[in-house]
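Sanity check

After download, print the first record. It should look like this:
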Amino acid sequence: MSAKLGEILVRENLLSAQQLRDALDYQREHGGRLGFNLVKLGLVSDDMITAVLSRQYGVPSVNLELFDIDDSVIRLIPHEVAQKYSVLPLSRVGATLTLAMVDPTNVFAMDDIKFMTG
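Expected structure tokens:
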């Protein structure tokens, strides 16, 4: 089983064990995802979380500002679905649709989108 986000941040000296405990206490009280709460509390940056999660899940991170996305690709996924799953279609080559996803572990999103787009 892969290590949890907090454990990785502590192991890589990006966060102290005490900061992790504080963030977990905050999470228990206020809810939300740990990565979001760590950024909200000012303990780490968005870029740090993105880099760690990218390595953890073996998926590349992308800078959306560098993409010129064709309108026909954007229309492949209805706005409501893209919003629901926090996804953005980036390109389509043949039968392969490349997505930017906030949560690349969301199998339900991938299954729904695969069903919708063929």
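If your output differs, re-run the checksum step. Summary of this record's structure: The chain has a mean pLDDT of 91.
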